[in-house]
Amino acid sequence: xxxxxxxxxxxxxxxxxxxxxxxxxxxxxxxxxxxxxxxxxxxxxxxxxxxxxxxxxxxxxxxxxxxxxxxxxxxxxxxxxxxxxxxxxxxxxxxxxxxxxxxxxxxxxxxxxxxxxxxxxxxxxxxxxxx
Length: 131
Prior knowledge:
By secondary structure, this protein is α+β, with helices and mostly antiparallel strands. The protein contains three helices and eight strands, in the order H-E-E-E-E-E-H-H-E-E-E.
């Protein structure tokens, strides 16, 4: 089983994240990595480390960001709506994702909040670390 298949369900949702209705506490940029710290409803914390970040965009970061879901797909397999969101967030053309280049070998990570931030990132892979 591929790493991607073991981390996501059939819709691309991260299964190890388990942070629905939790809080996005902070974002830390670390060179080519980005760390997202979240608190689950049960008060445990989880760290999502985005590795090999090629592009990163975040909007509407508010006090009290309420997490809905996090997703990860190979760029070519990302749903059209998510690709369009990434195109707008990265200020690029959708064909940019389909060219034979480094982007076509990346994964699209999306964190959606029911209140607050939306995050898009092109990544090599991710790690989920329970605190």
